[in-house]
Amino acid sequence: xxxxxxxxxxxxxxxxxxxxxxxxxxxxxxxxxxxxxxxxxxxxxxxxxxxxxxxxxxxxxxxxxxxxxxxxxxxxxxxxxxxxxxxxxxxxxxxxxxxxxxxxxxxxxxxxxxxxxxxxxxxxxxxxxxxxxxxxxxxxxxxxxxxxxxxxxxxxxxxxxxxxxxxxxxxxxxxxxxxxxxxxxxxxxxxxxxxxxxxxxxxxxxxxxxxxxxxxxxxxxxxxxxxxxxxxxxxxxxxxxxxxxxxxxxxxxxxxxxxxxxxxxxxxxxxxxxxxxxxxxxxxxxxxxxxxxxxxxxxxxxxxxxxxxxxxxxxxxxxxxxxxxxxxxxxxxxxxxxxxxxxxxxxxxxxxxxxxxxxxxxxxxxxxxxxxxxxxxxxxxxxxxxxxxxxxxxxxxxxxxxxxxxxxxxxxxxxxxxxxxxxxxxxxx
Length: 429
Description:
The chain is an alpha/beta fold. It has helices at residues 25-35, 57-65, 80-92, 108-120, 135-143, 163-168, 192-205, 229-232, 263-279, 285-288, 291-296, 302-305, 310-324, 353-364, 390-424; strands at 41-42, 103-106, 126-131, 147-152, 174-180, 208-212, 237-242, 255-260, 328-329, 338-339, 342-343, 366-367, 369-370, 382-385. The chain has two domains: 13-52 and 303-415, Aspartate Aminotransferase, domain 1 (Alpha-Beta Complex); 57-296, Type I PLP-dependent aspartate aminotransferase-like (Major domain) (Aspartate Aminotransferase, domain 2). The chain contains 15 helices and 14 strands. It has a seven-stranded mixed beta sheet, sandwiched between helices. A three-stranded antiparallel beta sheet has the order 10-14-13.
């Protein structure tokens, strides 16, 4: 008796709408090349530990000193001491109604983004998301049966959004506005007046502000950070941050979300977040013992972002490389851990960012993220992280320039021939 063929398991249809190229097809090809013995410079992930950074010692000691207390589950919203420390830190920066009961600890900001959208959205609801965005925001919206609606943050406007455009996108199904400040992938930082105008849109249309501030202390030159919650006042606002970036502890998976705004307005949402937190029992407990040390301890990031600091000097290397290249333009990042260069000139003709990223990896051993992965309509950008040493980054951009020069030369060889044929073509009767 023959065995019937095994039918492949069906997967969720909406997954076909989800993209996360930061760890997607190109990253899988990178693993294949490494398995073959190739050495790659991988700039696709903002992962400080992979580039030699360590979490500050006082955070490490905070965990090891309390490791004997980390075996049990804790409250679904998080370790009480961690929530108290976060609430106190956010009160100091002017967040209204910052209280431990309004703090939610999560397995990184990523988990909390998913929980917040699951708590908020009904099928067909809309979320206003920046373009470019960190693609988890789009993915989490889609996988929670919502629809991301994109507002533009164009390079011509230094990647800053237009509050007038944001308001034109509000519909009867809009539930929230996402803000990423400082921005990933562009490094833009949003001035106070711009944020006040976006808050006004949220207040007028009774929308929740979902504010990703994970890079709030990663700032360069004279850039200033303005928190949104103090501007929002009674307007419902959920602010996200954690240990991954400022404190270089990605693998600890510790993030938090602070809910502010009028108590009556946010009550049901608070209960929904609490329920969803309970369903996953609790977040990673050992890492939460480092939170108090992180939010009240010494500043360990500013020196890295100041002249002479590692992040600053790598950023400088990127800015100088782009300025020296005839193929690249860059809006200098004011914050965060990334640069988002544009390919211009002859090299940009017929340019496809995914094809470029694949060629760069195959021929030059450098992995970058195509710009279109960040939900933009154009295909001439790519993202690199600023975490390598400056000398490594100079070498990276020398390799990038080699690929772009080959592309420009190929275009220039084709164009004169085409023009010559056009000249020899007989005029139409």
